[in-house]
Amino acid sequence: MAAISLDPSLSLKHVGKDDTQHPRAVIDEIEGLIRVYKDGDVERPQIVPFVTSALSLELGVTSKDVVIDKFTNIWARFYVPNVCHGKLPLLVYFHGGGFCVGSAAWSCYHEFLARLSAKANCLIMSVNYRLAPENPLPAAYEDGLRALVWLKQQALRGDGEWWSRLSDFSKIFLAGDSAGANIAHNVATRVGSNHGIEAMALKPLSLKGNILIQPFFGGEVRTHSENYMVQSPRSALSLAASDTYWRLALPAGANRDHSWCNPLSKESSKLEDMRLLPFLVCISEMDILKDRNLEFCTALNRAGKRVEYVMYKGVGHSFQVLSTTQLSQTRTLEMVAHIKAFISR
Questions:
Q1: Residue 133 DSSP SS3
Q2: Rounded distance between C-alpha atoms, residue 267 and residue 5, angstroms
Q3: Mind listing the pLDDT tens digit for each residue in 62-73?
Q4: What is the pTM of this model?
């Protein structure tokens, strides 16, 4: 395992061609976030700064980047508390961004995960996966599985890497927010498929739970919150943006009732028949995804699965990484406390 120093934006943003003489046709766009051209080029404005793994000493956390797969440029950023008493749970975390934007090196994720690691007393492996539309689904799920296989290899090596000495590989949690929560869920369902054979293949890793923060699900039939939630100009997720993300991320010809988008659709496997981890689902009251998240939790409960959810009042989608209001900061501390309780059982 090699430590790396890189420009994370290189794998996330195509270098645009000279448009001054011959403007190109745009076929899809979310203003300020992503623009897709007919010729296949993709531009992602740097709306959020990319930062290195460096952290303030006062946080009490060490962070470093490591390569997972040099051929696909998949890497991860680790967060490890400086003071540990025994081995700690490990969260494998996937960032949000509609599968199309975002990075483990975005400053907002770097700050949030460093604080989560310190306050929840856990290690975090933040995975930088391939993005759509260049790499449509299931690429992100495959990268999540690849990250787990890599983690298994590190656990088997037992050579005392700087972070592995403190990892309790028998307490692994899959976590993420928005599209990252979707990835965590779909990776977990794959690991639990085929009568648990895949889970056995990951030994000595033992997955203990799923932490889904504002999970990015969709469907052809709109929910009440999707139709009527008042959208702020600064909203982290609008219905139009949600539809565009799904258009860019799903395989050609698929609609929003594809099982990867809508886990409750007719073409999805029945929850009753699936081997699923215990869930903690974090829902935002002012999020257009609120009702869809609640429906998911209700369906899990009816299927006899272990699920608990928390509703965060007065805040919207991705508040924990994109909002700096006092209310958002308070709700983020509440979220961290709920995650800590969930992984400490």
A1: coil
A2: 43
A3: 999 999 999 999
A4: 0.93
